[in-house]
Amino acid sequence: xxAAPKLFNDQLNPALVLLLMIALLTPAxxxxxxxxxxxxxxxxxxxxxxxxxxSQDTEAYYAFFDQDHFTAQFGGMTIDSFAAFKAIYDSIxxxxxxxxxxxxxxxxxxxxxxxxxxxINEYSEVVLTVSGDTVxxxxxxxxxxxxxxxxxxxxxxxGSTK
Length: 162
Hints:
Layout: H1 14-30, H2 35-54, H3 58-62, E1 71-74, E2 77-79, H4 82-92, E3 96-113, E4 116-129, E5 134-148, E6 151-161
């Protein structure tokens, strides 16, 4: 009859130490993001999105959208594709000289799961038109963010003005 393997000699068994290290480190390396991590990621993307809007960097702005699955709703109108949304947005840009202010007094992220989140906000903005007029608007928005291929992208936006 063979004796049971000795776990401890004068020192720890190297194989046991290695197994313990792997067991302890694996959860840290493979842990799923928690709700706070997801909120932080989506808020970071939202801040980057608003910077692109204010700087009128359309290339950076459009990079935040899932161009294959995007839909939107504004002013009672449903927009069923990114191409249609882009056409509307691009038609407004020639009249816009810049943002004097863009503020979001309310921004909340609701995590649905590891790859989906909803961001709701209230905003107020002051824009300057190329004709020199100042336009003030405020309202609320809803953004549905989806994480595919490791990146958060907008799949739906909706908004209304006050």
